[in-house]
Model the fold of this input.
Amino acid sequence: MEIGTIGAGAFAQALAKRALKAGHKVKLSNDRGPDSLREIINQLGPGAMAATKEEAAACEMVLLAVPWDNVPSTLASLPKWKNQILIDGTNPFHGKAGKFTRADVGNLSTSQLIAALAPGARVVKALNTMIVPTLEADPIVNGARRVAFISADDDGAKRQVENLLTGFGYSVIYLGNLRDGGLIQQAGGPLAGRNLLEEGDRHK
Ligand SMILES: NC(=O)c1ccc[n+]([C@@H]2O[C@H](COP(=O)([O-])OP(=O)(O)OC[C@H]3O[C@@H](n4cnc5c(N)ncnc54)[C@H](OP(=O)(O)O)[C@@H]3O)[C@@H](O)[C@H]2O)c1
Done:
């Protein structure tokens, strides 16, 4: 599968490494344009490509990996969504690393807000609970699988992201729809930042 990333920072690069290891192709995009991504693409190796935001967003599955403050303007700058899956990996923090403050998203989960800003996309909340070192670490530790949480309103999109993450080696737990599951896994929720392992192989 071809996975697009909107944002090509630490988080998108970690996802790209994992996806490349699992045999997928990844089109990374950022704000400054494809030329600025040459070194990153070289480091990621075969299967990684620099793309415009529009090219990345046209992939069947797209990771949103921009800082929270940039989410509205980034989504507004993209072409109309045509049913692609949009993985919301964001966490609602203002500012930059080291100086984060939690953003107020009102009465919505972050993914509900993103779904409202990206009509036509099938939004799935995933991977936001994994910090970069966790995403880069082995998904299987002493036979136990790292747990990845997902929340979604669209059943087909949920299944596809579940398959992607299972293919990475994770044990996937579906938490519910974008509102209920989203609130559990987003920053401030009980599963935010949790790095859990599941023993046994329920995928056999
Ligand atoms: N870092 C983590 O451990 C981690 C873990 C889970 C979730 N997350 C979430 O993932 C998101 C990204 O975090 P990060 O650590 O990867 O941040 P980062 O390293 O600062 O990277 C941000 C990326 O977003 C791009 N960007 C900003 N505005 C954009 C726009 N309008 N259009 C396209 N690209 C744009 C930047 O492009 P330029 O470089 O061209 O400006 C950069 O590539 C955040 O919401 C964060 O909460 C991070």
About this structure: The mean pLDDT is 95. DSSP finds eight helices and twelve strands in the chain. The helical segments are 10-21, 38-44, 53-57, 71-76, 110-117, 132-136, 155-168, 180-185. The radius of gyration is 16 Å.
